[in-house]
Amino acid sequence: MKVSVIYADIHQQVWLDTEVEPEATLLNAISTCGILRLFPEIDLHQQKVGVFGKIRSLDSHVDEGDRVEIYRAVTIIDEE
Fold it and tell me: Superkingdom of the source (predicted)?
């Protein structure tokens, strides 16, 4: 089944499509798509995750077409 995983840092946004098994969890989708290699600073023990803007636990199941989101703290850049 196809799901997407997205993440944004202060420099770029990444949207990765991935295939997971029918009983996959958010953690399975995140692990399968390779985003943790692209962003080694992601700490799933500290950062919240969700689907379509709603926070969910890593062991929540995903459905076909879900957009799994990895959230980070908001960063304020002072340009003065």
Answer: Bacteria
Nearest Cα residue to 69 out of 19, 58, 20:
58
Q: Are 3 and 68 in contact (CB under 8 A)?
A: yes
| CATH number of the domain that residue 20 is part of | 3.10.20.30
According to DSSP, the residues that pair with 70 across neighbouring strands are: 49
Token output for 76 = 């304020």
22 lies in a domain? Answer: yes
Q: Quick check: is 78 in a domain?
A: no
Domain residue limits at 33: 2-70
DSSP letters of 67-78? Answer: EEEE--------
Q: What would the pLDDT profile of 10-60 be if each residue is shown by its tens digit?
A: 889 999 999 999 999 999 999 999 999 999 999 999 999 999 999 999 999
